[in-house]
Amino acid sequence: MKVMHVDSSAKRETSNSRALARHFIDELRAQGVDVEVDYLDLTVNTPRHVDEAFAIATYRPAEERTAEMKITLAASDALCKRLFEADAFVFAMPMYNWSMPSVFKAFVDSVTRPGLTYLAQPDGRIVGQLNRQKTLFITTRGADLRPGGMFASMDALTPALKAAFGFIGVAEPTFVDAQPLQFSDQEARAAALARAKTELSEVAVQWAVHETVAA
Length: 215
Ligand SMILES: Cc1cc2nc3c(=O)[nH]c(=O)nc-3n(C[C@H](O)[C@H](O)[C@H](O)COP(=O)(O)O)c2cc1C
Hints:
The chain contains six helices and seven strands. With 215 residues, the protein is α/β, with parallel strands linked by helices. The strands form two sheets. It has a five-stranded parallel beta sheet, with helices on both faces. A two-stranded antiparallel ribbon has the order 4-5. It starts with a strand and ends with a helix. Flavin mononucleotide (FMN) binds next to helix 1. It catalyses: 2 a quinone + NADH + H(+) = 2 a 1,4-benzosemiquinone + NAD(+); N,N-dimethyl-1,4-phenylenediamine + anthranilate + 2 NAD(+) = 2-(4-dimethylaminophenyl)diazenylbenzoate + 2 NADH + 2 H(+).
């Protein structure tokens, strides 16, 4: 299974989302899945922000693009190719200011491509093209945004990820959200990490079973 593993935390050794993503890949291997990882650290290789040249080129039909427009889109094309070649996605990220880290938003902007990762049908329907890959989002949050808590209404991350990836074909993503972490006591933090690890182990088992059935 070729897994595209994407990290986006500004932290490194002390990052919980990075550690949880590594844990998931280890669990997948422990389940006997032959995992090939295509790794992308968005804090090192940050897709460039949408600028005027990109905004124009991306909506120009491929056959009408100038050589300059093709150069403008080349890095985005290459990222989309990596997504298409993967069998599964593991996207790990912290919540920053209730939504996704800006490097991950730059990634979303780079891979949401008309005529490539989604096709607009003549009747107006949108058909996302990344509909083959299993998708796991691992998010880490300092606060506790679970239903019933006082921050529950602040979760602008989950709906944003569902909408953006649903548009390009990811119909049933899995979410493992570790919370509360930074803004809680030691005990609650440890419990949140333990819960997330248990959920990740369960997802690894599901992916392994699916892989066996599909083989
Ligand atoms: C710039 C910044 C903004 C943050 N904003 C939020 C937030 O809006 N809500 C929240 O619950 N936690 C927030 N946090 C806390 C992180 O989500 C939390 O520490 C998380 O575990 C970080 O993941 P990491 O260890 O992989 O970096 C923020 C942290 C930073 C550094």
